[in-house]
UniProtKB/TrEMBL annotation, chains A, B:
<dbReference type="Pfam" id="PF13305">
    <property type="entry name" value="TetR_C_33"/>
</dbReference>
<feature type="DNA-binding region" description="H-T-H motif">
    <location>
        <begin position="32"/>
        <end position="51"/>
    </location>
</feature>
<keyword id="KW-0804">Transcription</keyword>
<dbReference type="InterPro" id="IPR009057">
    <property type="entry name" value="Homeodomain-like_sf"/>
</dbReference>
<dbReference type="GO" id="GO:0000976">
    <property type="term" value="F:transcription cis-regulatory region binding"/>
</dbReference>
<protein>
    <submittedName>
        <fullName>Transcriptional regulator</fullName>
    </submittedName>
</protein>
<keyword id="KW-0805">Transcription regulation</keyword>
<dbReference type="Pfam" id="PF00440">
    <property type="entry name" value="TetR_N"/>
</dbReference>
<keyword id="KW-0238">DNA-binding</keyword>
<feature type="domain" description="HTH tetR-type">
    <location>
        <begin position="9"/>
        <end position="69"/>
    </location>
</feature>
<dbReference type="InterPro" id="IPR025996">
    <property type="entry name" value="MT1864/Rv1816-like_C"/>
</dbReference>
<dbReference type="InterPro" id="IPR050109">
    <property type="entry name" value="HTH-type_TetR-like_transc_reg"/>
</dbReference>
<dbReference type="GO" id="GO:0003700">
    <property type="term" value="F:DNA-binding transcription factor activity"/>
</dbReference>
<dbReference type="InterPro" id="IPR036271">
    <property type="entry name" value="Tet_transcr_reg_TetR-rel_C_sf"/>
</dbReference>
<dbReference type="InterPro" id="IPR001647">
    <property type="entry name" value="HTH_TetR"/>
</dbReference>
Length: 201, 201
DNA sequence: TGCATTTGCCTAAAGACTTTAGGCAACTTA
DNA sequence: TAAGTTGCCTAAAGTCTTTAGGCAAATGCA
């Protein structure tokens, strides 16, 4: 019983990349060590030389997605400011989620603090903060605004992908534009608290 | 070998309620037919007389959470308007997520269209729309605003629960308040596409 | 009250995924 | 080309899901 014993050329990198493709094609829920082994036409146990466990596979995909998002965000913001930059950054998230729904779902995985701190998520926050420089907000407010923008981008895209908007009249595209209009306005006229936060002594 | 053959008194209702508790205690990921059977000290197969499959269990928990959220939202909005109503509704989501993280995670499950249409999610959207009556927005804009509020509530709470805000300086509580301030302002000065906000000449 | 039917939980079993242990062949290197 | 390392393999145990069929308790009816 002679077999083709050519090696499959597995590696952590390739496995995670293939896992990301699998996620986009079949859904992140379907990403499994077994499915991945099938895709490489290899026995399941073989993957465990490259991955500690299935969690590492999922986490790897999440980190890949977060890094890709940060890269795209950096690209989108280069040379832009104000409303233009806001739209560009927002569209990075929306477009990525549409192109790579499985990866986007992976990016929402809860990571343990150290892993999260070393992820592209941090860079994304920095980039959002950079975007806000065009809006001239006082420092304590800037953090709040970063969080607002993150929430809207993340929330809107998740809800749209989840079909929350697919059964009422204006298409999600139109709301997206109008919401970005509104956020732009809001950032230009950001209300400071009546009793301003103590910035220092 | 005489056994205690008293019946466990299982029912779809009780199973889903217990599943919701399990979700809050152990995490929605850990909600499994097997774990539930263990909790009732009953054999796994017994649950399949009450549940078509494990998906039905998860969906049931999601629908329970969506209904509970809608109930709380209705309660919170009763007799309130404007900024007061906005805060009350927003806190419904945030408080619920903190009290019942497993159920909240369940509520984010993608439901098929018919199920979603019959869920508490619809009522939540209606209630959000009712809240906006206090802000007097023209009709096409109202839908956009509903979606914005939904996105912010959902996005912010998810990110906070996911730990996205736990490693930067102002606590999530403070940002929440400031963001609600900002949204209140935004809704009062909502920019319409034809007549842009008088930001300047 | 006694009998028949229904109901509720059981045993058994098969299939899928995860993970570990240990083996052999194919590469690498000297 | 012999020795060592690496890469994928077989084997096996554990968990979860789901279906089929069985027995006894609960219920309904005369």
């Amino acid at each position: 019983m002679v077999q083709d014993v050519a090696r499959a050329g597995l590696s952590r990198e390739r496995l995670i990349a293939a896992g990301a493709e699998l996620a986009d094609e079949e859904g992140f829920e379907q990403v499994t060590v077994s499915a991945l082994a099938r895709r490489f036409d290899v026995k399941v146990a073989s993957l465990y030389s490259h991955l500690r466990n299935s969690q590492e596979l999922r986490t790897g995909i999440a980190l890949l997605a977060l890094a890709e998002l940060a890269d795209r965000a950096a690209d989108a913001l280069a040379g832009r400011a104000g409303r233009d930059a806001l739209t560009a950054l927002a569209d990075v998230y929306r477009d990525y989620a549409h192109e790579h729904p499985g990866r986007y779902a992976a990016a929402q995985l809860r990571l343990d603090p150290e892993t999260a701190a070393a992820s592209g998520g941090v860079r994304q926050a920095q980039l959002t903060r950079a975007l806000l420089r065009g809006y001239d907000l006082p420092e304590p407010e800037q953090t709040h605004a970063v969080r607002l923008l993150g929430s809207v981008f993340y929330g809107y895209v998740s809800m749209e992908l989840g079909g929350s908007f697919s059964h009422s009249s204006p298409g999600p595209e139109e709301s997206w534009t109008r919401i970005l209009d509104a956020l732009d306005t809001l950032l230009r006229t950001w209300p400071t608290p009546s009793a301003p936060t103590p910035t220092g002594p």
